[in-house]
Amino acid sequence: MKEITLAVDGMMCSGCENRVRNVISKIDGVTDIKVSYEKGIVVLVLEDNINIQSVKDKIINLGYLVK
């Protein structure tokens, strides 16, 4: 398992948090996710075999900028 923190721009409300959480939580291998629009972060706990770029791409496809 690994924990990764992503900086995400563009989340403006709890609805944004929920959108990100719902999409990312459906990815096999994501064991925990915390999203904060106020801090502009997504904290993930992932199995070691997960490609972090695929997670970033899903967030980007929602319309947010991942740093």
- Element-by-element helix/strand order: EHEEHE
Category from helices, strands and their pairing: alpha+beta
Question: What helical percentage do the residues reach?
Answer: 25-40%
Strand percentage, roughly? Answer: 25-35%
Unreliable sequence segments: none
What is the level-2 CATH architecture name? 2-Layer Sandwich
Using the CA coordinates, give the radius of gyration. 11 Å
Spatial order of strands in the largest sheet: 2-3-1-4
Report the principal-axis shape.
Answer: globular
Give a short account of the largest sheet: 4 strands, antiparallel
Total beta-strand segments: 4
Average per-residue pLDDT, rounded, comes to 96
Total separate domains: 1
Number of helices: 2
Report the CATH C-level class: Alpha Beta
CATH topology: Alpha-Beta Plaits
| Alpha-carbon distance between the two ends | 22 Å
What does this structure look like?
The protein is built from two helices and four strands, in the order E-H-E-E-H-E. The chain has about 70 residues and is of the alpha+beta class. The chain has a single domain, classed as Alpha-Beta Plaits. A four-stranded antiparallel beta sheet has the order 2-3-1-4. Strand 2 and strand 3 form a beta hairpin. The longest helix has 12 residues, at about 15-25.
Compact description:
The protein has 67 residues and is an alpha+beta fold. It has 2 helices and 4 strands; from the N terminus they run E-H-E-E-H-E. It has a single domain, classed as Alpha-Beta Plaits, CATH 3.30.70.100.
